[in-house]
Write a structure and sequence with these properties.
lyase, 2-enoyl-CoA Hydratase, Chain A, domain 1, delta(3)-delta(2)-enoyl-CoA isomerase activity, 11 helices, about 260 residues, ClpP/crotonase-like_dom_sf
Amino acid sequence: MSEQILIEREEGLLTLRLNRPDKMNALTRTMYAGLADALEAAQEDRSVRVVLITGNAECFTSGNDIVDFLQEPPSGPDSAVFRFMRALMEFTKPVVAAVAGPAVGIGTTLLLHCDQVFIAKGAKLKMPFVNLGLCPEFGSSFLVPRLVGPVKASSLLLRGEGFTGVQAVAYGIANEALEDGAAALERAREVCQAFQQLPPAAVALSKRLLKAPFIEELRRVVAEEGQHFVQRLHSPEAHEALSAFTQRRQPDFSKFL
């Protein structure tokens, strides 16, 4: 397992800690593969009762590592990022997240697939897919409008409007906003301990029933978004946006009018 994903075991709790602080926990193919491997193994490990996903006190994740993505973009459902998406979306045990600082792109959309989210009040969330010439991913085009309504969803997904941990609670993306990252992690661990005391089969069944009314539609949307996302990565607009990002300049989309 890469040292950029730290795995911590404590009784029935499995903690997956993003550990690339020099790059604001930006996610690489190797990190996605490590997360997917860990979740797939935890699904089959009866000793794991609950999973906690977190970063550090300053940052959850700044999203995809753009350079890594440009070097070898995902090409299909077996790519590491899509393996991670499937593993998290289909995970039958409780998943809890503790979030502080930036949570960008998939750093926000993965929270939509967690069962409980505890977040620092000042956390900074954003889904800037369109800004990068891409499109929504990980079911966000389906789940975000269900949570906040279509009008607000257009601000979050079409304009990439940022929001805070306090707003994330108001939008139904997080359960509680805490004073800082340490408090968010402490509260998340408390909830994980509560899950460990519950009957596991009853928890798994209840989680399945909660998702049953929409899971097939969600799977379809995630697959469709993934296809478009891969295509958009090769588009001239995305090339301009991602190049501008790496070159620290404003993108120029006027040539595409």
